[in-house]
Amino acid sequence: MEKEKVYGRPKLMPISIAHCPGCTHGLVEKILAEVIDEMGIGGDFIGIGGVGCGMGTFVVMDIDAIGAPHGPALALGTGIKHALFEKPIIVTAQGDGDCAAIGMGYLINTAVRAERLTCLMVNNGNYGTTGGQMAPTTLIGQVTTTSPKGRDPKRFGYPVHVPEILANIKGVAYCARTVLNSPANYTRTKKYVKTAIQKQIDDVGFSFVEILAVCPPDWHMKPIEALEFLEEKTMAEFPLGEFKNVDHID
Amino acid sequence: MVVKAVEEEKVLVQGNEAIGWGAIAADCLHFYGYPITPQNEVIEWFARELPERGGRFIQGESEMAVMNMLVGAAMTGTRVMTSTSSVGFDLMQESLSHSAGAQLPCVIVNVQRGGPGGGSTQHSQMDYLQVTRGGGNGGYKNVVLAPTSAQETFELMQLAFYLADKWRNPTIILTDAIVGQTAEILERKVLDFGPLPDKDWALRGKAQQKEGKRNISFCGPMRKTFVITDLLSSTWLLAVKELGEKWEQMEKTEVRYETYKTEDAQLIVVAFGYVARVSRKAVDMARSEGIKVGLLRPITLWPFPYDIIREKAREGCKFLVAEDNLGQMLWDVRYAVEGRSDVGFVGILDRHNTSPGGMILPGRVLEETKKMLGV
Known about the structure:
The structure holds 2 protein chains of 2 kinds. Chain A is α/β, with parallel strands linked by helices. Chain A has helices at 25-39, 73-83, 96-100, 104-112, 153-156, 162-166, 183-201, 216-219, 223-237, and strands at residues 45-49, 64-67, 89-95, 118-123, 126-127, 133-134, 172-179, 206-212, 241-245. In chain A, helix 1 packs across helix 7 (183-201). Chain B is an alpha/beta fold. Chain B has 13 helices and 17 strands. In chain B, helix 1 packs across helix 2, helix 10 (273-288) packs across helix 13 (362-373) and helix 11 crosses helix 12. The interface between A and B is large, with 37 and 40 residues.
């Protein structure tokens, strides 16, 4: 009987990087590889990974890839975009620490300048690579290595809602939040990522997608428990959906 | 080096504007910057002149953002530069270290102001150690060029871009508020330093590369020819070794300096930037009194002209370091002299008054040379 291949690595991904058991980063890479391939933009694509678990996001793909310093992936993207007079399509893949803590200033100002760039922020609620410290996105009461008794809002404030902030900035063409917990939301994520990149190609403005994710080892949970936590707690704090989607900015 | 072309019309420009003309002469069409005194004329010049020439000016939200934009543009192989002053230069150090490690050519101008910290908005030479020793982490090296006039600023800007591309390394131009804000006649000669290697390492999208080869750049030590297995950290030390050998080669080949009346000198004043012009005047004053004094002006502060100083020290020549700080280049001169001869110092505490506008004047340099020579 002839076998038919029904599932495999996207053709743009010749290599893979091992992630922790239950981690969703591999899915982010897969979605991006599929989207780049389906949109036929690999030749003009430059991917920038931020410091953290997303550093290797584009390295696994057969495209030009950059590992940025911690925080300024979008500033690098700005330099590249202007240096090549808007020719390349540039996407950054950053974590919530890289993007919303050390990188928040770069993010907001890149949006204010309406740079034709796309930013993906994978939000796993902590600093995964460094061993699970508190991030701006850490939930109230969530235990991390730097909030050992749980995040106390009196001392450390509240989880930051990035796309909701960006929706108020005029230079933003698109901002949305999605999650990787089911095949349906995998499809939703892929659609959001495609839309965000299309806004850049259509020269509308800055685009941003937050992807809610798990971090089983640093949450000290089994993968299935981490998914349950994601659905019960994380998704209760962070609503899904598109917060801004415009085809033209006056 | 040959003169390729000369714009007929001579122009009266500030040293800071000569930075712009020099960049244009070097075909640099990308400038990213952030306002800071005393270099605002530089970013204003580029904001005005670059778009008209088909180039790009971006005003970033901070010097950190600007330097990271430079890193991005440099990764594409595009000639790119920024300009800042002292405290702004501090903020660029992380990404400057990154561009040295990842072998990214770019040019950074530091029009020095007073320090430490915010210091003053007026001139000083207090950043010598920071620019020559690598202000960021990791012990990287970069050529530092120190002009003394608008004309030299214009010419060294062109050399800076050539050296950046030649070595795949950032180059720093170190000037100060006096060199930057003095208006002088500029003759716009376009200089040709010779051919440069192809930038086949540049990231422009795979479709732009020969045979569709992908390129990768990372914020750590990078070998010139990157292979995917370099991502496994087993080759990290090979990259460090390659960088070390490159910097050693630069140190051997890129030393530049100017001497003035040093042949028969019993004492040589060592000075750069505005203090070198002050010191040249002091040398003329000394010579008119029959005192045998000369001037050695390092054009490259790194690599430093140790050999010529060592040679003269062995001949018994004394040295007087004149610099507008508490003593920084002084260390390099002492190192070169190896204790064989006297090394005197005229510094920021010898300024003619205590306000930020105080200067080291020729009379003070002359006074010290006389004291050292016992005349």
